[in-house]
Amino acid sequence: MVVVEETPEIRSEEFGLLEEEVDRLFTKLNPLGWTKNACESIAPFTYRINQLKKERGFKILAHSYQTADIVFGIADIVGDSLALAKKATEIKEKRILFCGVDFMAESVKILNPEKLILVPAIGRDCTLADSITSEDVRKLKEEYPGTPVVCYVNTSADVKAESDICCTSANARKIVDSLEEDTVIFIPDENMGNNLSKITGKKIITWPGSCRTHNALSIKRLEQLILDENTKTLAHFECRPEIIESVDGIGGTGDMHRYAAKAPKDEKVLFLTEQGFIDRMKVEYPDVQFEDSKMICISMKRNDLFSIWKALEKPTDDNVIELDEEVRKKAYRAVSNMLKY
Ligand code: CIZ
C-alpha cells in the first residue's frame, strides 16, 4: 500500500513567503541540529498554521516540553502550566489551541470557561493525573479529617475539585510552607511529596503516583548523563529522592528557566527534566552549555504539526476541552487559591 502524506497546499504566489518561513525556522532550529532540508519539510505546516491561527482568532499556547518545531515554529506563548494558565486569562483571543496534555488544558479551561480550548493530539494522558480519581481523594479526606489537601497541577479537574489548593512545581514549596498545619495530604506525586517533606519538615501523606519520565531516572543513568564533574545539575521535583540528594538544586522548569537566564557564560548545566525544555533553553541561552537529559514524555510528544494543522482547520469533538460546570467551579477554588502564590 502506498501512503501519500497529506500536506498543506501552497499556492505558487506563496512560494516566496514559504522561502522566508524556511529561513525563519532555520535560524531558530539550526542550533539544535536542524538542517535546511528538515526546515523545508515542516515549513508548509508552520506557514499554514500561523496563517490559520490569525484568520481564526486563535492563540497557540505550548508547554515547554513540546518539541522545538512547535515551540519555535508556531507557539505564541511558551511556559510551564502555571505561566500558561495565567497568561490565558490575559489574552484577548477567545480561542486557544493548547499544546500539552489534558490536565494542563483543563487548568486553562478552569480559569477561562468562556474560551474555546482545543488540544490537537488524541490520547493526551499523564501517568500522574491518571493515578488518582475524585473518589480516591474523598476517601483520603475521610481517613485524615481536617488535613489540608494539596493537589499537584498534574491532576484532572475532578480531583482538583476535591482539593483545597492546587500547586505546580513552581510554587509547591511555598504553598506547603504557608499552610498552618504540620500534616498535609499531597497528591498524586509520591516523589514530590517525599521531596517536599524533606525540604519543609512537614509530615506529608502521599499517594502512590509518579511521572513515568522523571521517575525512570536512576542514579546509574544520572552518572552516565554527567559528562563533566563541573556540571551544575538541577533535578525536577518529580525525580526520586535519591536523585535529589545527589544534585546541586531542585525545582520545576520555572526555577530552571530562572537559573539558565543567570548562568555564567559557558557554564555546563544539566537539567533533569523533559528534553523539550532543554532544547528550548539551548535556543534561548546559547552561551550556556546545556547537557541533554534525553528524558522524553511520550504523551507530550503526541502533539505534532500535522495534528495541530488538522485541529485548526477542522476541529473534532475530541479536540475540545469540556468541563462540567459544577466541577469547574469547585476546581476553580483550588486553582485560584494557587494563583495567590
Ligand atoms: O507545572 C508544569 O508545567 C509541570 C508539570 C512541570 C514543570 O515544572 O513545568
What does it look like?
The chain is of the alpha/beta class and 341 residues long. The chain has three domains: 12-125 and 300-319, 3-Layer(aba) Sandwich (Rossmann fold); 129-209, Rossmann fold, CATH 3.40.50.10800; 213-291, Rossmann fold. Helix content is 45%, strand content 14%. The chain is built from 16 helices and twelve strands. It has helices at residues 15-29, 36-55, 68-73, 81-90, 102-111, 134-143, 157-161, 172-178, 190-200, 212-215, 219-225, 241-245, 253-262, 275-284, 305-313, 325-338; strands spanning 58-63, 77-79, 95-99, 116-118, 149-152, 165-167, 183-187, 203-205, 232-236, 249-251, 268-272, 289-291. The strands form three sheets. A four-stranded parallel sheet has the order 2-1-3-4, sandwiched between helices. Strands 6-5-7-8 form a four-stranded parallel sheet, sandwiched between helices. It has a four-stranded parallel sheet with strand order 10-9-11-12, covered by helices on one side. Strand 3 (95-99), helix 5 (102-111) and strand 4 form a beta-alpha-beta unit. Helix 4 runs parallel beside helix 5 (102-111). The radius of gyration is 21 Å and the shape is globular. (~{Z})-2-methylbut-2-enedioic acid binds at residues 63, 80-82, 153-154, 168-169, 252-253.
List its traits:
341 residues; alpha/beta; Rossmann fold; 3 domains; four-stranded parallel beta sheet; 16 helices; 12 strands; globular; binds (~{Z})-2-methylbut-2-enedioic acid
